[in-house]
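Chain particulars:
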Amino acid sequence: MQIRTILRILGILIALFSVTLLPPAILAYFYEDGGGWAFLVAFVLSLVIGTLIWYSNRDHRRELKTREGFVIVVMFWVVLGTVGAIPFWMPDEYTLSFTDAMFESFSALTTTGATILTGIDELPHAYRFYRQQLQWLGGMGIIVLAVAILPLLGIGGMQLYRAEIPGPVKDSKMTPRIADTAKQLWYIYLGLTIACALAYWAAGMTPFNAIGHAFSTIAIGGFSTHDASMGYYDSAVIHMICVLFLLIAAVNFALHFAAVPRLYSRRIEGQQHYELYRGSLKVYFNDPEFRALMAIQFTLMLLVVVVLVSQRWYGDWTDALFHGIFQAVSIGTTAGFTTQDYSTWPLFLPVLLIFASFIGGSAGSTGGGLKVIRVLLLYRQGMREINRLIHPRGVFTVKWGNRALPDRVVQAVWGFFAAYALVFVIIMLLFIATGLDDYSAFGATAATLNNLGPGLGEVASNFTTVSDSGKWIAILAMVFGRLEIFTLLVLFTPAFWKH
């Protein structure tokens, strides 16, 4: 294990991350409502720490292998989550305890969206912006930016890419070079964020709130600059803009990449040639996961709206329509924005929405959960086993599109599901051991492991009442969910550490 090489990389990452503490400090100066000192101190501390770690290991530039890649990715989230907590922990009138600061930072960076804060509307603009910015960086910006920049610093990026990109077919790349892939993903992510912010602004949000909510929408994070979340805005237009961009962000970004026109340049016989790739919207509809995602989301919307209308939960059916659609997409994609307290809705709706978050978004998206592709493959494998029982001598394959998948991929999906179920049960039991009732413990586990945010029972709106030990369990669950179980679980196996 190349420990000093890993430390050198972490030092660079911490130093780069320190730069993200400057925008909140600038906002504090602009709005003059406090918080600037905390972010300036946090910037200096993180920059010094990162520089010292890098400098003491600057001569260690050995090639990273797959094992080091896994360690880097896990340490990336753990270390940056810890550094991200520094501003919350600074001693001023808004200071949080160490546990609460860590919880808020990890919840933001993992795009979970669970919070221990109340009175968010009264917080300085610096803190409110910082929470949104952390979610945006955690959604995809940080890892994509890191994979694009690290090769320029002499650090290989392929190992990080394979360890971080979600989904069972993670070895495929969209462009021949990993740095190009990362940059293209970054451009798409940034472009969607700008488009979302402009749409919010045009719909009536202030520029500050439009940018902040665009950050958490494209990251499918769920943090808001208001206690009432999206319910603060009594605007169907704003709510539907949020729904649209949540659905876009829940799609595999590889499909966005394939659909966007772009100009390629390449050198042939010493001369630079340019080639236009036109892109095509057909790539969306030809993708089985995209079709399944849309079918799941629209079915969920229909179920929620029908139940709300039939139960006359709202006086006006249009309220049931808009609130039902919004909550179905927000919870189903694991964003966690709310316009109403969905945990009080009638019949099975609260539990239905929580179960929908288990599916989450597509692989390669910013959504959480098991991912649509895995659920779809689990279903097809289940149907194959049923067919085998009916026709013992038959030969059946699990297909993805027109291609039969190797059994190795199917086995990996089953393995992931088994590991997910085991971690879920253990986390839930640990929550119960801290004093949460069974219903709340189930909601807390689903909310953190699926990177959803709001849960059920005591944690339906926030985690303020959860004990400190429960918050540390929640942090562990958030990291497990963000790293999709195996990336973190592999570090606990003795075989991983053997030479």
Remarks:
- The radius of gyration is 23 Å.
- Confidence is low (pLDDT under 50) at residues 145-174.
- The first strand starts at residue 262 and ends at 268.
